Amino acid sequence: MHTLEEMSGFHIENFGCRAARADGEAVGARLLALGLAAVNERGDADVVVVNTCSVTAEADREARAFVRRTHRRNPAAKIVVTGCYAQRAPEELAGMAGVAAVVGNSHKALVPEIILGLAGIGAQTDSAKIVTVQSLLAGGARVWVDDRFAHSFLEEAQVVPGMQTRPNLKIQEGCGNRCTFCVIPQTRGSSRSLPQAWVMRQVEGFVAAGGKELVLSGINLGRWGRDLPEPSTFSTLVRKIVEQTNLPRLRLSSIEPMDWDAELMDLMAEFGGKRLARHAHLPLQSGSDAVLRRMHRRYRPWHYAEKVAALLKAAGPELTLGADVMVGFPGETDAEFQETIAMIRTLPFGYLHLFPFSPRPGTRGWALHAADPVATLVVEERMEALRALAAEKSEAHRRKFVGRELDAITLHTPDALRRRGRTTALTENFLPVVIAAEIEANQLMRVRATGLNAEKVLEALPPTGLLNQYAATAMSV
Predict the structure, then answer these.
(1) Which 3-state string (H, E, C) describes the chain?
(2) pLDDT in tens, 168-181
(3) Which fold has domain 158-277?
(4) Which of these CATH numbers, 3.30.750.200, 3.40.50.300, 3.40.50.720, 2.60.40.3780, describes 309-400?
């Protein structure tokens, strides 16, 4: 391959959190802007980008399995592995068959140029920007990794509504909280923020491109602005976006409990359900004070409950509350686990993301696990109990909205549903909906929830005008 025209295209596979997905979307946008074509199937691509996660051992395993399957299916493809796993253990990935390059988060902004270099389009590659810290010969892969994270931000690409109706705008990178279980400080570095002026240009460009809902994301989003030359706060940025742009709806991704300050609560009270989505994801991890202390989390269970109460007061009962919960942290006793169960029962969660503890090399949790692990069978039993409780809480929350009208945005609908005359959507307060009509993506509308389907997803009718149009179309078929 020596020209863009000769390339059949690229495929990006994202693993992990919303912020990681934002990285993958930014890489894709840059590659499209450079003239490369995106393909849906990795078997048809000349270059496959594997954007990894490394928060658990299972995440590592999934990434390796995907690389192996990709190489078997498409031996000629050049596989570029990036993300947290690439940063944490580049040697493991560089030795895998088919891997042409390993690019840590420290150099993720250079992935597009590296891909062009692999394709033999050297004139397009600014080699002066690329610092090859390690050049491993295992498997023939080159590796770009260091601990300075100087090329970690993918800030050049304008976020637009495309394959993702509701794209992520990652405005903050890294974390300095040093939780004992977390490898993020190693894989993404300390907290770093993109300038306010850049964020505002992105929001304005998104609106100009027809965007309706934008999701602000980051690794430790609530800490945005504190490291800037002229320090600012996340709540200041949110207010500026809702007051100075025409963005119809802004959604906030995961924010640590202690970062929901009074100003951010005031914004939820003032704009919630209007310009600001009534949806809050507050990582919990455990409902046990003793476990939270061992985790080195910076809040106690009662602090968390107070934040939830304040959020409900600000947003009202329409708020959808989500959380991350970790099971089997080293030394977790039955009594401590029951504290978590009891706390979850008392709070109005709409959904939970559940994770078994996974020891990560280089963290304090690794040593704690070696000294006092929780038996695998016990972890599985606790996970099952939490899954049942999470399903119960989710269904109860969604049933509250049956018979009510809700604001929603339409999404790209899977073909199987579209052929049945249905459209997938997401409500302003983060409830998945299936609308009984065919509607193009990226439309804001008010729908009426009629019930829950077998998968416990809300079913809804579109606005009256669209419903009449759908009925007339159905009769003519």
Answers:
(1) CCCHHHCCCEEEEECCCHHHHHHHHHHHHHHHHCCCCECCCHHHCCEEEEEECCCCHHHHHHHHHHHHHHHHHCCCCEEEEEEHHHHHCHHHHHCCCCEEEEEEHHHHHHHHHHHHHHCCCHHHCCHHHCCCCECCCHHHCEEECCCCCCCCCCCCCCCCCCCCCCCEEEEEECCCCCCCCCCHHHHHCCCEECCHHHHHHHHHHHHHCCCCEEEEEECCHHHCCCCCCCCCCHHHHHHHHHHHCCCCEEEECCCCHHHCCHHHHHHHHHHECCCECCEEECCCECCCHHHHHHHCCCCCHHHHHHHHHHHHHHHCCCCEEEEEEEECCCCCCHHHHHHHHHHHHHCCEEEEEEEECCCCCCCHHHHHHHHCCCCHHHHHHHHHHHHHHHHHHHHHHHHCCCCCEEEEEECCCCHHHHHCCCEEEEECCCCEEEECCCCCCCCEEEEEEEEECCCCCEEEECCHHHHHHHHHHHHHC
(2) 999 999 998 889 99
(3) Transcription Regulator spoIIAA (3.30.750)
(4) 3.30.750.200
Same fold, 158-277 and 309-400: yes
For domain 4-144, the CATH class is: alpha beta
pTM score, whole prediction:
0.88
Segment 116-140, tens digit of pLDDT = 888 776 533 343 334 343 444 345 6
